[in-house]
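Exercise 3.2. Students should predict the tertiary structure of the chain below and write it as structure tokens, then compare their answer with the key that follows.

Predict this chain's 3D structure.
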Amino acid sequence: MKRKKLIRSVISLSLVIVMLCSLSIPAFAAQKPEETVSPNWTSISNMNIDMAFVGTQGCVSGTARKQSTASHIMGTLYLYKWNGTEYEYMDEISGSKSVGTLAIAIEFEAEVGVQYKAIWVVGAFTNGISEWHTIQYLETCR
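Answer key:
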């Protein structure tokens, strides 16, 4: 009888210790590290679009670089203006390059308080196969 009581006491004490230890150890959800999403492109190395205003003078520019395996890269930069109900076409410019970075820009007269949208459509070619991607940028003239 004493032996059963001793075993029960040891088991109870062990369970109490396990429970106390589990309550005393803080549990935190692991936070994901900051991740940068980078596309896995075959023909395009990178592409970027930017817009800036100096007073009412606006400039939007698009840059794109091809992978070293691509034969050439081409792109068209479109500019739109918000007229209160929809984006209204303003201008576009295209270019292509077989070496280096493709960079094109549109300069325009802007209106304070109006939002402008630029769309940069880029295509690069590797072994006769094209790869196309589009990015856009919104900015309000202040």
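Discussion points: The chain has one helix and seven strands. Residues 43 and 113 are 38 Å apart (CA to CA).
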